[in-house]
Amino acid sequence: MLPILQLGPLALQLPGLLILLGVWVGTHLIEKEAPRHKLPAGVLSNMVFFSLLGGIAGARLGYALRFFEVYSKDPLGLIALNPHTLAPFEGVVAALIVALIYGQRKHLPLYPTLDAFTQGLASMAIFLGLANISSGDAFGAPTTVPWAIDLWGASRHPSQIYETIAAALVYLVIQRLKIRSPFPGFNFTLWILLTSISRLFLEAFRGDSVLIFDGLRSAQVVSLALAVAAMLAFHYLARRHARADAE
Amino acid sequence: METLTSLIQDRLRWLGLTALVLVVGSGWIWHSSVPTSATTGGLIPSPREGFLAPDFTLDLAGGGQLTLSELRGEVVLINLWTSWCPPCRLEMPSLQRVYEANRERGVEVLAINMTYQDSETAAVEFVQELGLTFPVLLDRTGEVGYKYQLRSLPTTFFVDRQGVITQVILGGPMSEVTLQTALESLLSEEP
């Protein structure tokens, strides 16, 4: 765990830097993938940029709405450079809405666009894992396995390492299969499926799961629903493509 | 790849496979379910969110001692600082204003000077210069710095009424809005 990287007088927050690096690498891969899907690379990188801006703005506004009274007394607090005053869910929703609006305005086809994003998203997941290794977040459950690590007052599963390795394996599968994609939407759906299944499996080793229904891990329930949805989407997309081919 | 495509297109076989994923996945979820208390670190002392704030007893700058666990039932803000750290100095007036505004609502601010990295005289002079009224504690041996794994100055921990850390902010200076919103979440919880 190394949350702070000390470079002389500079104390850099390494998890944040790794996430920024992930966004940069991911955007680069999206731009590289774009021509293979006959999409303009610049438009896709703009889409990432505007979604990020929309996401940050949405996350801050969402947070401010929760504490409207506090922010109404000091509206300048809205522009504070503080990552702790962001609402993640509202941020993701805002980013998706911005991406959708931008994509429609630029007449981007849905499935090829999602496919072009896949490799970049898969690489970002690796950097997210590295950021968690650095911060000690997403920590594992206490265990006695020989490879346990001492973290947060207990010997724990190195869940951050498991998740980083899983994300790297998913990336390699996507990288290998992307050229042979049999129909539009295949790459993206495959990424959703593999990521959901790995999360479904690895969440069992986490020590910070949010529990529902008296003991079920909510991330596993969501992952299973996503995995099933991805499998149904596979079937739908394949049949749709076959019908289009036949016509 | 053609075999995979034909498998995906075959409704019966693909839906069968999907049902298998659903059954195996549900079984795994059931197998890895745990008692509600098992995944929280609320009873283990460790300096991170979701864990019990490590206990300490320190000397107060004005004389006397203070023990963290004696404040159970109050919302506590623990700020680790030194007098030579510019962001620590900058955020102290905000801490004072937030303390004054929330003291009667059950908020305690503990400003723990990392005295083992600082000059005690300089720290006390700074407290007097700003007229800080919240408890200022002196960590002369580095006990709290070690227990709270100090990596960055300032570092601030928000602790709920049960003594569990709910938020850790590395670095500063924090604005009043940041401080107030973090406290509002804790104050809105049942005592």
Our Rg estimate of chain A from Cα atoms comes to 20 Å
The helix/strand order of chain B is HHEEEHEHEHEEH
Radius of gyration of chain B: 24 Å
Order of helices and strands of chain A: EEHHHHHEEHHEEH
CATH topology of the largest domain in chain B: Glutaredoxin
CATH H-level name of the largest domain in chain B... which superfamily? Answer: Glutaredoxin
Oligomer kind: heterodimer
- Sheet-strand content of chain B, in percent, reads 15-25%
What is the largest interface, and how many residues per chain? A-B, 51 and 49 residues
Which residues of chain A sit in consecutive blocks of at least 5 with pLDDT less than 50? none
Structural class of chain B: alpha/beta
Tally of individual domains of chain B: 2
Choose one word for the global shape of chain B: elongated
| Uncertain spans of chain B | none
Please summarize the sheet with the most strands of chain B. Answer: 7 strands, mixed
Number of helices of chain B: 6
**Structural class designation of chain A:** mainly alpha
Spatial separation of the terminal alpha carbons of chain A = 57 Å
Q: Taking all residues together, what is the mean pLDDT of chain A?
A: 91
